[in-house]
Amino acid sequence: MIWTAIILTGVGAYLLKLAGLSIPGSVLEHPVVHRVADLIPVALLAALVAVQVFGEGPALTVDARAAGLAAAVLALLLRAPFIVVVLIAALTAAIIRLI
Amino acid sequence: MTAPTSHRTIIRDGIAVGVATGAYGISFGAISVAAGLSVLQTCALSLLVFTGASQFAFVGVVAAGGAPLSGAVTGLLLGTRNTLYGLRLAPLLGWTGWRRAAAAQLLIDESTAMSVTRESTEEARVGFLSTGLAVFSLWNLATFGGAVAGEALGDPRTYGLDAAVGAAFLALLWPRLRDRDNQLTAVLSVALALALVPVAPAGVPVLAAALVALAVGFATRRDQDATEMPDRDDLPGGGEHE
User: Is there a single domain that holds both residue B133 and residue B28?
Assistant: First the structure.
C-alpha cells in the first residue's frame, strides 16, 4: 500500500511537471486558476502544521510539540535558516519531555 | 546595458543553492523514517517525487495515521505549483522532445527561481540545469544520510523529531505569510483542519484545506496574473548571487 502510494506520487509529480513544460500556456491562463494554485500550498501547509502539532489520533492535544512549534516561530522571526528552525523545535520538545 | 551574467557565476550560484537545500534533505530523511517509512521508501520518495513540500506532506499525513493514498493526493495537490512554473518557463527554456522530458524532473522551486529571471535562453538553461542537478544530487544524498541517521537514533519522540515535522511545514509556509490573502487562507485552513480532526479519518482534515484555497481564490480574484514565482532571494544560499 505504501509502495503503491509512493509510486503514484512519483509518477503524478513528474506528470504535473511535464504538463507545465508541454501544454500551451493559454490553457491555464485563467487568473482564478492561478490564484487557487498559489493558495493551495498555503492552505495545505497550514493544515499540516495544525494536524501535525495538535493532533493525537482522533483527539486534539497540547503537548511538547506545541512548545516546539512556539520555538520554531521564534527562530523564524529571528530569520534562522530552515535546518536551525527544525533543530530548535526538536530540541525544545525533547527537553520538555525530559523535565 | 548590463553585461550578461557569466556562466561561471550562474553555475556557482546553482551549486550554492544545491548545498543549502541539502540541509532540508537531511531533515526530510530523518523525519520520513520517524514517520515509519523505511530507508528505501524514503530514498524512493526523494528520487521519484523530487519536490520537497510534496514529500514532507506525504510523510506528514502517513505519520498522523492517514492512509498512504491520502498522503499521495495531498502531495500531488502541493505538486501542482510546479505545473505553473513549467508554463512560465517553457517558452524561456525552449526545450522539446527527450530534452524536455528529462528536464521536467528537475522542475522545482529552486531551479525555477534560478532561471525565470534570466535574459536569454542560454542563461536560463544554464541556471535551470546547474541548480536542478545540484539540488537533485545533494537532496538525494542528504535524504539517504538523514534516513540512516534517523534510523540509528531510535524512538523519534525522544529527540523531539515528531515536533520537527510541524516546524518543517511552518518553515516552508513562512515566506508566504507576508500576503494578507495568504494569512486569511492559513488561518481558515488551520481552523477547518482542527475542526475535522475529531470527526474525519486521518488525512482528510489536510485535504479539506484545499477547499479553503478554492473559496479564498474565488472570493478574492483579481484581474492581474498573480502567480507568485519563487524569488532567488527567498532561497537558502540564493541571496548572494552576482
Answer: yes
Kindly give, in sequence order, each residue whose CB lies less than 8 Å from that of residue B98, ignoring residues fewer than 6 positions away. none
Tally of domains within chain B: 2
B114 and B67 housed in the same domain: yes
What gap in Å lies between CA B14 and CA B202, rounded to an integer?
Answer: 38
Q: Contacts of residue A54 in chain B, CB cutoff 8 Å?
A: 194, 197
Residue span of the structural domain in which B74 resides: 7-161
Q: What is the ipTM of this complex?
A: 0.89
Nearest residue of B to residue A88 by CA position?
A: B164
For residues B235 and A83, the model is more confident at A83
- What is the distance between the alpha carbons of residues B168 and B160, in angstroms, rounded to a whole number? 13
Would you say B46 and B135 are in contact if contact means Cβ atoms under 8 Å apart? Answer: no
B1 to chain A nearest CA, in Å? 30
> What is the largest distance, in Å, between two alpha-carbon atoms of chain B?
62
Same domain, B112 and B208: no
Query: Shortest CA distance to A72 belongs to which of B174, B180, B64?
Result: B174
Does the residue B239 lie in any domain? no
List pLDDT tens digits, range B169-220: 899 899 889 999 999 999 999 999 999 999 988 888 998 999 999 999 999 8
Domain assignment of residue B228, yes or no: no
Closest CA in chain A for residue B65: A57
Determine if the pTM surpasses 0.95. Answer: no
